[in-house]
Design a protein that fits this description.
- There is one protein chain.
- A hairpin with a 7-residue loop joins strand 1 and strand 2.
- The protein is globular, with a radius of gyration of 28 Å.
- The chain has about 375 residues and is mainly α.
- It has a single domain, classed as Rhopdopsin 7-helix transmembrane proteins.
- A two-stranded antiparallel ribbon has the order 1-2.
Amino acid sequence: MTISHHSTFNQTTEGLDNDFNTYNETVFRFLRIAQISFAFPALISLILNVLIIHSIFSSKEWSKSPTYYLIGNMVTCDIMTASLFIAFSIVSCFTISFFSLDVICRALSVGTGISYMASVLSLTIISIDRYLSILKPFLFPSRNKKLSVIKSVIVLIWIISIMGALPFAIVTGAISGTDSTCGIIYRGVISVIYFLLLTLLLYLIPIITMAVLYVKIYHYWIKGIRRRSLAKNTTSNSFQGKFLTQMERKALIKTLVIVTAAFAIMSWPFLVMALALAISGVGIEDVEKKNTFLFVLCTIAVSCSASTSIANPMLLMKFDKNIHRRCINILAQFTNTFFSHNRRKIFVSYKPNLSPNTLSVGKDGLIG
């Protein structure tokens, strides 16, 4: 009886394990398909961001505007993120060695970290630029001087981002025994400190800084104490006044606030997940094996953060009328050029090839 009881129990346990494994395989297959399918929205993001950056730097006015120059830098970060995820989605379609997958995971983590940090710092500098332009317009003697400073700041942004993202090559990598899964593989005090600093210095402090500056700008406009006495050709604000009207500047601030809010909302799930995993010492492979629901949440958190590169260009084109108008014009020019080129090709391909012996009708109606 005892043997029969143990045999029945073992069969039941094996049945449950098989059901659980089948469920896990179904979930992971779905996640794999979702991972590969992410290439399509990433491609849309790439096209939109390339269109926006072309509209900015092909314009004589926008390419000299410090604010739009910084927006162009942020768009460059989104292009980098979209390109990385397209490449990873393509790689996921093939069977590769664990070593190659590990290298790809580390490179993807570092590249995404660089683009994320550069985006956060660019958004922060944009808020500082708007604050100084509106509340302290006499700080820079000219817009060219301000643009020179902004270019130096952008170089500093990329240096800080590269240095800050390099530890991702150590703490992240491919997880053994999984199918195309990247995660935090180093668990220890250093990992906890790194993600704490990352959350503090590259999320909380920038978000608080941007919120405070935009609130100050809002109160400044609400109180109506903005000074309108502008010195000719001596301040950055006077030059900006020729480029953007008061209503356009307010609309630009509104757009930047919306982009910043969307960035903050979409970024925090990944940071919370990474910080929780680092503090608890639980690896993503443990979550994958023990709690499929939490594993799916972690996947959603990563996807949500990565989707900022898709949301940003859509928000810019939706709420910034200047960018929207110029992008539409560029698309119209491209479409007209494309169709006119095709019409010429069709005309040439169907043009009759008249030989010297071919009969032709002259203007007088005589056959020659």
